[in-house]
Amino acid sequence: GAGGWSPLVSNKYQWLQIDLGERTEITAVATQGGYGSSDWVTSYLLMFSDSGRNWKQYRQEESIWAFSGNTNADSVVYYKLQHSIKARFLRFVPLDWNPNGRIGMRIEVYGCTYRSEVVGFDGKSCLIYTLNKKLINALKDVISLKFKTMQSDGILLHREGQNGDHITMELTKGKLSLLINLDPSNAQINITLGSLLDDQHWHSVLIEHFNNQVNFTVDKHTHHFHAKGEFSYLDLDYELSFGGIPLPGKSGTLSRRNFHGCFENIYYNGVNIIDLARK
């Protein structure tokens, strides 16, 4: 009715779902109870989805899985989200409500249009970026992207040199591995982060390479690595490959399985790779 949302039956199987019409960056939420009533929700879950079928729960902090709701019908309880949500659909799932009333909610969602470049890969293709040699900074490399997939294996990124040096980022059994190979010394660095990354939700990746320092971040977890000696002199071609390796069999024992899923907002040292590919 006009006083807000109140389902016919008050139990833990009810939810209020919002379709924002397009993928949106959500930065805050606010709730009230039903107008002029004894109906309000005292705690709730917040779920989000791109498709309306595959849902993920938002957690304010690792230990806090529910939002505290209202203590009366009309006071506004506002939460600024610690990490913004990028999604089209939201669900408010009541957990508890006023024992002397029913489930009742008025909600407000705050955010802005989320601008993104998305490209899909069918497991047989890759996107190759040839660097402008004039813009290369040998001391610093920063690569960032988001990906989502239902496949547990696939190559996300590959860069190779003439002498066998290569950097490969690969999804293996739902975990993400960064493999750095220095061919002359036959030294290998293999860092693995994350799990269940094949859940068809977006995951963010950041690789920062400064001299011989590497920061590898998957979602909110970062592995810092300090390599010795020749690492800062990786002999790499002016070419990056996203989604697969162009010439199979070129470098060692990798899964050879191309990526099948979506990439969003691929950046190499500030260059928007997907936007360049569209052009």
Walk me through what this model shows.
By secondary structure, this protein is an all-beta fold. The protein has 2 domains: 16-113, Jelly Rolls; 118-278, Jelly Rolls (Sandwich), CATH 2.60.120.200. The chain contains 1 helix and 19 strands. It has one helix spanning 273-278; strands at residues 16-32, 41-49, 56-57, 67-68, 77-97, 106-113, 118-122, 127-130, 140-149, 154-160, 166-172, 175-182, 187-193, 203-210, 213-218, 221-226, 239-242, 260-268, 271-272. The strands form 3 sheets. Strands 7, 9, 14, 15, 16, 18 and 19 form a 7-stranded antiparallel sheet that branches. A hairpin with a 2-residue loop joins strand 18 (260-268) and strand 19 (271-272). The longest helix has 6 residues, at 273-278. The chain is elongated, with a radius of gyration of 23 Å. 28% of the residues are buried. The mean pLDDT is 86.
